[in-house]
Structures are given as structure tokens and as C-alpha cells.
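Let's practice the habit of predicting before peeking. Look at the sequence and jot down your guess about where helices and strands might fall. Then scroll down.
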Amino acid sequence: MRTHLRTSLVLIAVLLLGLPATARAASSDVIRDCADDGKLDKPYTQTELRGAEKNLPSDIDEYTDCRQVIRAAMHGGSGNPGGPGPAGAIISASGAVAASQQDIDALAAVQNDSVKGKQPEISIGGRKIKPGSAGLGGPLAGLAASNTMPPSLLTAVVVLLLLAIVTTYLAARERFPQVRRVTARFLGR
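Done guessing? Here is the structure:
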């Protein structure tokens, strides 16, 4: 019975460790699709696109325009579909229609700031709010973004810790009879 329990727990832990790898595979599909011909041939989720942008290899980033293609797909533009657009319209590189040149300049400034890691502040009700700070300011501002570990990885770590604790306890109980007596006394059996 104990062998089955241990085997089951190890199997569950191994399967949970495979979850982050499957998420990574989807972003590599986006990169491969873009690197093939410079455009995305299939629709991808925002998560896949963000993962691809974060994990874009340096050689592909340097010698192709995949970063721009991925960003355009993230912002909803997949390039101009070929039509001229509305009369007098200004069309951005991603195919989006802008009302004025100032809109395109503002978009370029936001994109450049995001590349540099700057987060824009938004003014709501006279208060400056920084996205991702959870309303924390001053010395506590960094706490909101401090936990960037993916939930699947965090779950796998917790399961592995629990597995290590249970395995250690079972091994100690077999080897040292005192552990069994202390446990029985502690649990009231």
C-alpha cells in the first residue's frame, strides 16, 4: 500500500513539473512560425504571444522583425490587410488606423517605454496610478510585482515539498520506532 502511495505521489509530481514545459512549447511555436516567413500564419493567444516576446532568441530578434510582428499581433494588428483604408487615414506599421500623426507618435513613445521597462502612470481622479503596483506606493511599491513565479511552477514546488516531507516521515517511521510512538502520542491514537 505504501509503495503504491509513494509511486502515485512521484507520478503526480512529475506530471505537474511538465506543465510549465507545455506552456513554453506554445511560445516556441509562435517564434518558429514568425521566423519561417516573417509573419504569423495562425492565431495565437495573448499568453503565447507574451511568452514568445519574452523568450525571443537574440539571433532571431537581431536578424528578423519578429519582435515587431509579435507586438503587432499582441495589439490586435496583423498588418494592413491590403486595402487602402479610409480616405485620408493614417495607417501605422501594424495596420491600425490612426486619427492623427500625434496618435502614432504617442503609440511609438509608449512602445519605446515598454521596451525600456518603463510603466506608464495613469491619472485617475487626480491620483497617479502605476499599473501593476496594486495601489501600493513608496517603499511598498515593489511588493506587488515581487511574486512573478508562474502558478504551475509554484504548485509543482509545493507538491514536491509535501512529497519530500511525507517520504521522510515514512522512512523515519520504518527505521526508528520512536517516531511511530511520538506520532501516535501526538495524534492521540
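How did you do? DSSP finds seven helices and four strands in the chain.
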